Each structure stands twice: as C-alpha cells, then as structure tokens.
Amino acid sequence: MPTELEELVEFLHHGNTQIRQAAAEHLVGYSQADVPLFKRNQLEPVKDLKLLVKDYAPIAKNALTILINISADLEVLKDISKDDAFLELLLSRITNKKEPNANEIAMLLANMAKDDSLQRVLELKRDVPKELSTSKWAMDQLMDCFVKGAEGAYNKNADFDYLSYFFADLAKFEKGREYLTTSQEHDSNIIPITKIQVFTDHKSHIRRLGVASTIKNAAFRVPAHPVLLSNLPEDPTLPAPGIGANLLPYILLPLMGPEEYSDEDTEGMLDELQLLEPDKERESDNEIIKSHLETLLLLTTTSEGREVLRRVKVYPIVRECHLHIENEEVREACDRVVQIVMRKEEGEEEDVPDMSAAGGSAGKLVELKDDENEEDQLIEVL
Prior knowledge:
The protein is mainly α. The protein contains 19 helices and no strands. This is DNA-binding protein-like protein HGH1.
C-alpha cells in the first residue's frame, strides 16, 4: 500500500487545480529530505513537476522549488538537464518580461549547468525575444537577462542574480570559456565577459560571487590572457578585431580599501585604481577576495602576463590586501600571487618581498587546479 506521501505525489497530475496546488505546496517541505519520494515509478513525479512549470504561477513556483532541491540527485539532474523540450520551456519563460518565477528558473538553470549536457546551450538557437534581445543565440539572451535585468530593470519580479552561477558552471567547460573570452561578431564584436565583469562591485552578494567565479573559471583559458589583460580598444598585438577586455580594474578594485599608496607604488598603476574615495570599502566576502586573487594567479601563467601585472603595480595592491585582511586563506593566496609576480624571470636575480613582514607567514607556491571551485555546491531553497 502506498504511504500518504506517496499518494500525495500522485496528486501532482490531478485534474483539479486546487488539489495540484495543495499537493505541490505540501511537498516542497519534503524535497530536500526525501528525494526518493520524487523518483518513484521511473521518475514519474519529475515528469509531473516539469509539466507544472507551465501551470498557474503559485503551482509553478512550488514545482520549480522542488526541482531546484531534488536536482541535487544525479539521476534527477541528468533527466532534467538532457530534456530539450524542458530546456526550451525554461528559456521561453525566463526571457519573458512578465514571468513571475524568473528567479527560480535562474536557480534551476544554475543547478542544471552542473551536468555536462547543458554545454549545448552555448550552440543553441531559438526565437528572438524582441523586448529583451536582438540575438537568436540562447546564451546571448541569458546574458541580456543578467545584464539588462539587474535589480528588476527588465522584469519587476526578478533580478536574475543566480544566472551568474549558471555562467560560472558553463565556464568550467572549454566551450564556455571560449564564448566568454571571444569577441562576438554578431554583437558588435563585444567580448561577453566585459558585460558581466562590471558587476564585481554590485550590491548583490550572489551576483558578485557568481561573477567572480565566472571570471576565475574563464581565466583557465590561457590563450585568452592577452585579450583579458589588454585595456586597449584597438590593440594591434591582439588577433582581429584587436579589442582588449580590460579585466584587471574589475578584479583589483575589490581588493582595495581606503589606504593611500606612495608615489612609487602608484606610478604605472591603472588609472581606474588611482585617486579612490577615502571611504572606499574592500570586498567584505573573503571567498570573493580569494577568487579574484586566484584569477590573478592564473593570469601569471605566461611571462607576458607576469610582466603586465608587474607593470600595472599589482604587488602594492596585494600587499595591502594581505596586511588588512586577517584570514589565513586570503593571506596564503596573496603570498602565492606575490611570489610569482615578484619573482625574477629566468636569468634575473631573485628579489621576492617577504610577506611575513606584512602580518603573515611566507606562502609556498601551490598549483591552482581547474576543479577548485566554491560554486560546485548546488542551490537549495529552504
């Protein structure tokens, strides 16, 4: 005999709207602790939940919440991620200006991106949502949601912050990194990462964290480093169209506080980093600080990258960051950056500053692995 909960799951496809709504609402509370409940009869409840995303808004919201939570299960994740029709349903709704559950869809997409199959969104074409975008590419449309929809500017019901987690996971794949760091001819040669890097100082913690992780993951693509490091709108040293992404100010500013620098320190420092307000605040989340430092570490992979970081005076910024943040992981990350940036190239005499004098122990060089990502954790709705 089925239990009461198992019977309740059966009501998810009931013909009566009120019964469907009551069932979905009640089952939300079991979607974290009792995932097997939703895997009965060859994932029949999951099929019902996917259909309920098209139901009345309150029912759809509960269905999406349940799907967000149970997508922590690998079998469920693969089922929803590989479903082309369901992906199109989510895309058609999140790009709709009046969609009341757009934020929940963004959360679900972020979880779905944990599955390799979702790389296909990078090459997916669909109808153009004319109020939002001019592009037929699904990835461009999601980027437009994130950029144009910040703080309810496109859809009053949504801020699209969780799409930053979606981008971060796609940036673990080579195709995702290539998209983010390559100028798009169909989009006025804009480099997609330049659209999101401006949010590293946004008031939303979710958005800052997701963007920092996206940038770090994209920086694993070493051939893109010259583009990321260049701040020239027309750079003859870059391949056509020769446009630099000017990434550095957006990952260095969060590391900086109100401290003043000597003339020697500021000589060569990027214009955007000079003459900051006396009340300038450093990023408050140490995980985000660590992500930016790890991005800098990745950008030291080549001698050309190291030379750029020396020239724009990254060392004084990291030194002050090390001095003012009493967190061992942050200080170790600072040490790693300093040891590589300030280490002389082959044939030159070593002259690495002793960071222990700045309030911590001298760090050791540690290889940054491609899978060291905080955003690996799935989103759950409590």
